[in-house]
Structures are given as structure tokens and as C-alpha cells.
């Protein structure tokens, strides 16, 4: 058998982080959408994100939302009402590019589109959709999603926030914790226990200027610092009958929304990993020790090879799930596999990249520690790694280990 000549040998990858050519599986349109989001991030986010992170705030969140709305990023995978109607893969690629800049930026878009907008789009009345979705798609109105409580995160069925009927009105009392966009939101999708006689867990579309609604921004975060995070307080919040989401009852509502957002995380976390890996790769070729670049040492190459392989496998998994979502849909356990694998591998990549940078790895001059810190939040929110482990375990065995 003749060996291939040098003229017929495949060329080295144009992107050293894509050795197996995952990009070849994307369409020209998908690559164009990715390029647009990358350019938006380069122009609007990259010059400022380190400062925002150090401040522990996202002071331009509303301005960013409007800019993202101009290019169709908000609710981009939803149809109608001013939404772009793009594919799940398009949305995933956008999430990856957003989180390559910072997890907080991707969270802004994810909470707006996959939680608040999706809830109204999937379960809202026509009046609710017409009132809110066009403005939210344009970034003119900001939404948040009130599910997690101070004492109930992984067990939302035990929430203490209550909704009671008072004539034709609803009255809400309770609190919600760790709510992205909470203190800048114009509308909150709040989940409350309305009692078995009213369908159990119900969702409510709550304008944030309603009397009794308050949001207090949370400070002193060590992770996801370039993001607005708040605690919501609802004290006798009176809403008209039309505020309830009419087309869903029970935990199906919030859990369906979480599946949408988790799908974006499957892609998004890989952006953080890609940035960290690229920083470590470049640093290793520039940093010299013992009169040679540290990229030439076997242990450094072993780290880079492992990180690169995990990143590429994560991209393949995300793309597979995205293609299925666009054709036949995803089951919850499939989303759990994606979040469980990709977030745990992404945080491992960031931590390993930090070791290549040595002491410089903890410096804000490099993006690695910022991404590693952010992923500590991503590892926990919208389903902890433990919960997704048990979802996968239940699928494998048929036995529930939640209780």
C-alpha cells in the first residue's frame, strides 16, 4: 500500500483548538451567526469585562440588552413576536461566544430568552405575549425568572412562596434568591404554590413596579461578578386574574424553562473553557523556563492535549444535542448529560489552564481565573452537578434517589 504523498496529506488545522474539525460540521449560515456574535462581544464586552468583573457589577446591562436585541440575540430561538426564530444550534453557538467573553454576559441573554421569554412564549396568554415579548426581544424590557428560594434550590416543589385568590385577583407572598437581572427587570416570571385547588405550582407575570414587589441586588459575590444578581421580596403583591400563565400547572412549567436554559449552558460553558485553553496555549509558547518555552515540556503538552480533547468532545456532544433539539427534541435526561459533562469538563479545563500560567494564572491580566470562578456558579445553578448525576442515574436504573 502506497503512503500518501505530502501533496495529498490533509493540512494541519487552521484552528489549533479544533484538531478534529468540528467546524466542518457547521453550515455557512451557522458560522456566519457565530461570527456576528463574536464581533458583538469583541466590540461591546471584551474591552470592559475585566473592569465590570472587578467592580462586581454590570452597570451597562440595559444598554447591552438593547444592543443584543438589535442583532436578534434575545429569545433568538423563539418564533414570532419580534423573535429571530433561529435554530437550537444557532442559539448554542451564540451562547458559546457570549460565555467566551464572560459567563455573566451569557447569563444575561439566557435568563432573558430561555427563562423569562420562553415561559411567556410557551405558557402565556396571547395578551401576555403581545405585551411583553416584542419589547423583550428588542431589549427594551428586561425579564427575570423567580424560582429559587433562600431555603429551596434543588427542591422547587417545596417552595414557600404562596399565591392565593382574593376575588378575581391573585395575591403573592414570598421571596426568591439568586435571581439574575432581578434588580433591573421590568417583568418577573414568578413561580408560587397556589394550592392543590388552583393547580399547585403556578407561574405569574409580574410587572416589577407592582406595589409589594422589591428587588435587592446581592453584593460580595466571588463568582459571576459581571452580572446583576438579586433577591426578590413579594409582600402582598396583588395581580389581576390575567397575570397567571394559563397554559401550565405544576412543576412542568418551571422545569421546562430550566431545560431550555440548561441547553444553552451545554454550549456556553465551552466558551469559557475555550478562552482559558487558548490563553494557556499561547502563554506556554511565550513563557520560557530553563532556556526553552514551557510548551516544549512533556507535562505541559500532556495538559494541553487533555484539555483540547475534552473541549472537542464537549463541542461534539453539544452539536449532537443541538441537532436533535432541532429535529426530534430533547428528553430531560439528555440535557442533564450535556450539562453534567460539559460544565464539569469546562471547569477542569479552566483549573488546569491556571496551572500552566503558574502564579500569573491568578492575575486579572489573564482571563483564566475569572472564567474558573464563574464556572463555579454555572456548576451550581439551573441544576447542581449532583442533581444531574441523579437524573442520569435514575434513567440508567429506573430507581429514584432524590428522596
From TrEMBL:
Domain called Acyl-CoA dehydrogenase/oxidase N-terminal: residue spans: 27-140
SUPFAM superfamilies the UniProt entry points to: Acyl-CoA dehydrogenase C-terminal domain-like (SSF47203), Acyl-CoA dehydrogenase NM domain-like (SSF56645)
Entry protein name: Glutaryl-CoA dehydrogenase
Matching Gene3D superfamilies: Acyl-CoA dehydrogenase/oxidase, N-terminal domain, Butyryl-CoA Dehydrogenase, subunit A, domain 2, Butyryl-CoA Dehydrogenase, subunit A, domain 3
Entry's Gene Ontology molecular function annotations: fatty-acyl-CoA binding; flavin adenine dinucleotide binding; glutaryl-CoA dehydrogenase activity
Cofactor(s) named in the record: FAD
Residues annotated as domain Acyl-CoA oxidase/dehydrogenase middle: 144-235
The UniProt record lists the keyword Zinc: no
InterPro entries per UniProt: Acyl-CoA_Oxase/DH_mid-dom, Acyl-CoA_Oxase/DH_mid-dom_sf, AcylCo_DH-like_C, AcylCo_DH/oxidase_C, AcylCoA_DH/ox_N, AcylCoA_DH/ox_N_sf, AcylCoA_DH/oxidase_NM_dom_sf, Glutaryl-CoA_DH_mitochondrial
Domain Acyl-CoA dehydrogenase/oxidase C-terminal: 250-396
Keyword Nucleotide-binding found: no
Family membership: Belongs to the acyl-CoA dehydrogenase family.
Biological-process GO terms, alphabetical: fatty acid beta-oxidation using acyl-CoA dehydrogenase; fatty-acyl-CoA biosynthetic process
Keywords on record: FAD, Flavoprotein, Oxidoreductase, Transit peptide
Amino acid at each position: 500500500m502506497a503512503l500518501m504523498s505530502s501533496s495529498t496529506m490533509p493540512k494541519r488545522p487552521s484552528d489549533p483548538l479544533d484538531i478534529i474539525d468540528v467546524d466542518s460540521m457547521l453550515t455557512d449560515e451557522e458560522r456566519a451567526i457565530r461570527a456576528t456574535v463574536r464581533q458583538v462581544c469583541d466590540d461591546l464586552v471584551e474591552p470592559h469585562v475585566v473592569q465590570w468583573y472587578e467592580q462586581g457589577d454590570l452597570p451597562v446591562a440595559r444598554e447591552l440588552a438593547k444592543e443584543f436585541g438589535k442583532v436578534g440575540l434575545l429569545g433568538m430561538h423563539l418564533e414570532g413576536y419580534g423573535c429571530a426564530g433561529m435554530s437550537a444550534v444557532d442559539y448554542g453557538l451564540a451562547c458559546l461566544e457570549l460565555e467566551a467573553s464572560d459567563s455573566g454576559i451569557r447569563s444575561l441573554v439566557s435568563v432573558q430568552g430561555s427563562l423569562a421569554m420562553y415561559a411567556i412564549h410557551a405558557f402565556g396568554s396571547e395578551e401576555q405575549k403581545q405585551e411583553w415579548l416584542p419589547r423583550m426581544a428588542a431589549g427594551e424590557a428586561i425579564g427575570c425568572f423567580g424560582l429559587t428560594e433562600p431555603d429551596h434550590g434543588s427542591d422547587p416543589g417545596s417552595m414557600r412562596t404562596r399565591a392565593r385568590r382574593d376575588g378575581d385577583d391573585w395575591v403573592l407572598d414570598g421571596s426568591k434568591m439568586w435571581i439574575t437581572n432581578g434588580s433591573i427587570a421590568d417583568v418577573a416570571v414568578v413561580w408560587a404554590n397556589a394550592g392543590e385547588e388552583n393547580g399547585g405550582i403556578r407561574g405569574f407575570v409580574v410587572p416589577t413596579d407592582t406595589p409589594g414587589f422589591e428587588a435587592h441586588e446581592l453584593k460580595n459575590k466571588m463568582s459571576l461578578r459581571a452580572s446583576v444578581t438579586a433577591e426578590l421580596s413579594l409582600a402582598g403583591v396583588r395581580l389581576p386574574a390575567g397575570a397567571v400563565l394559563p397554559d401550565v400547572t405544576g412543576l412542568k412549567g418551571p422545569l421546562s424553562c430550566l431545560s431550555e436554559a440548561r441547553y444553552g449552558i451545554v454550549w456556553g460553558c465551552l466558551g469559557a473553557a475555550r478562552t482559558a485553553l487558548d490563553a494557556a496555549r499561547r502563554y506556554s509558547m511565550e513563557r520560557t523556563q530553563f532556556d526553552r518555552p514551557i510548551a516544549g515540556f512533556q507535562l505541559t503538552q500532556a495538559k494541553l492535549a487533555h484539555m483540547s480533547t475534552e473541549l472537542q468532545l464537549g463541542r461534539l456532544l453539544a452539536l449532537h444535542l443541538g441537532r436533535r433539539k432541532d429535529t426530534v427534541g430533547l428528553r430531560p435526561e439528555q440535557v442533564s448529560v450535556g450539562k453534567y459533562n460539559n460544565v464539569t469538563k469546562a471547569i477542569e479545563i479552566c483549573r488546569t489552564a491556571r496551572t500552566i500560567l503558574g502564579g500569573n494564572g491568578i492575575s486579572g491580566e489573564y482571563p483564566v481565573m475569572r472564567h474558573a470562578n464563574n464556572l463555579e456558579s454555572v456548576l451550581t445553578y439551573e441544576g447542581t452537578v449532583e442533581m444531574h448525576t441523579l437524573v442520569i442515574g435514575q434513567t440508567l436504573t429506573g430507581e429514584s434517589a432524590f428522596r
